[in-house]
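ok trying again, last paste got cut off:
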Amino acid sequence: MEKQRFYQIVRQLILDRLKSGELKHGDKLPSERELCSETGINRNTVRHALTMLQREGKIYRLDRRGWYVTPTRLIYDPAHHVNFAKLASKQGRTARWTTRETGSLTIEGKMVGSNQFEGFKPGTPVDIMENIFFLDGQKVAYTQNYLHAKRLENIIPKTREEAMTQVIENEYGIKLEQRDLIIRPQFHSPEISNELDVPPGSPGMYIRRIKTDEKNIVLTVEHEYWRFDAIELRVKS
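nice, full thing came through this time. structure:
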């Protein structure tokens, strides 16, 4: 009972500062040591309070950087094509992303049934692209994209300044169809956590998309890994 009472003191202190505006979206919280000094409460109890606020989506922690107030979530309809820059702009946010080409391969028969390459036919040449997406300067998502290298030849450099779906339509004359969508919560692997600068095992949202041309030939298999507190999924019928 005593530990819970002390935990509530720290939790309420942060909530009051959020309510008053003393702490705003994106602000860095006082360090755990500073909160201990201010409240006279031990560090384990302070960290417990902060972890509970993180679970409630009020704050989040960046590895080796400290605790921050959760920014406003990006409203996101995964059932439709997403132009990240336009979506962010409409919601008063500033978006940017990094693009890197990480290799190429040819789909073998044993790879066809895997979630990673699902939909590609054996013999399909595939280029691999990775992105980090930022909102208002903060990392919010990491993506791995597998692209039909023959149909979308040399596409990766073209996506550094323009959304991939838009590039495919404008540069290649192909209107993509989203054929298969998976959404599930998960704890991010150490590799994904490292890309997002969050502690290993942090909660997140995984989205897998398969997109085809009008003849139902798979052109992209996209894997998105979002910070759990960065987006709010809303699907309109």
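cool. The chain has a mean pLDDT of 91. The radius of gyration is 21 Å.
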